[in-house]
Amino acid sequence: MYYSGSILENPNTMSELSNCYNIPNAEQVEQFLESREDFKTLLIEAHEKIIQCFDLTSSSTSTPLALEVITDPEIDNWKQLVVFIPTKKTPEEVARQLEHLEETWWLDADNTDGEIAIHVKFG
Length: 123
Description:
It contains 5 helices and 3 strands, in the order ααααββαβ. Strands 1-2-3 form a 3-stranded mixed β-sheet. With 123 residues, the protein is of the alpha+beta class.
């Protein structure tokens, strides 16, 4: 694993995720993650990888990565946890960065059966 120290000593709390993500509805995210403890570690690792692949730092973006649970009203009980990456970059540049993220990490690390997704939010 890529982490050492306190960030993974207690991955059962939302505080680690709150340090990495803007979580508008923390209660909903916490409920989603209740029975998925391994997802928390994956999300902490995802934060680092996304920051690297998208050349983000806390000073270079005023909007942090966001973590939200989305639902589909047409499918009963369907939920997905989405990491939103804010960007003002061109779609072409973002496509290259997403491809790099997938090829170098996400395709091997994603063990969530589609329950977690990474999306870009342009603006």
